[in-house]
Amino acid sequence: MDLHAKEFDSGTKIKLQLFSDYLMKWLPVFIAGRQPSAKRTNIFDLFAGPGKDTKGEPGSPLIIMEALEKYRSHLVNGHTPVHVFFNEKKRRKFEALVENIKGCGSINGLVDVRFLNEEFQKALELLSPLMNDSANLIFLDQYGIKAFDEHIFKQLISLKR
Predict the structure, then answer these.
(1) How far is CA 91 from CA 41, 62, 94, 144, in A?
(2) How far is the C-alpha of 102 from the C-alpha of 104, rounded, in Å?
(3) Which helix (H) or strand (E) holds 41?
(4) In what helix (H) or strand (E) does residue 84 lie, and over which residues does it extend?
(5) One pLDDT digit (tens) per residue for the chain, 161 residues
(6) CA distances for 15 relative to 22, 60, 62, 70, 142, angstroms
(7) In what order do the strands lie in the sheet with 82-87?
(8) What is the DSSP letter of 54?
(9) Which residues lie closer than 8 Å to 57 by C-beta, 6 or more apart?
């Protein structure tokens, strides 16, 4: 089943609203303080999809970008660099994701956004070194949990933030 081939169902919309609410509370802890608590702030969406559904309803990538836009003033005056990493392994969805995120250009230069077109394991291997001494939000939805094993769980919970 391809979640992105149709309009998001009510369960997905609730999950995305919960993610948005959490993100809006999490971000200022790391980007709005006078004294940074970490060298950098990272947001990882490693099963990003194209960024929205067929009706244009924002998915997690666009929700992340919208949240960052709401904290624009903190990003301008911030002490901690913010990095966002989107991974989508399916080429068609990856290309759509890049295009959809390009439309969020108002925070370009304030946030470092990077795209990967890899299997989850490879993306995590490439990005893991960036997680040390950083505040990390790692979004793994119901599609990502399939790729999540005990080793990955232990690796992620060993991070300081």
Answers:
(1) 27, 18, 5, 17
(2) 5
(3) strand 40-45
(4) strand 82-87
(5) 565 667 999 999 999 999 999 999 999 888 887 666 678 899 999 999 999 999 999 999 999 999 999 988 888 776 688 999 999 999 999 999 999 998 776 676 789 999 999 999 999 999 999 998 889 999 987 666 677 777 777 777 777 76
(6) 11, 10, 14, 20, 10
(7) 111-116, 82-87, 40-45, 134-139
(8) T
(9) 7, 8, 13
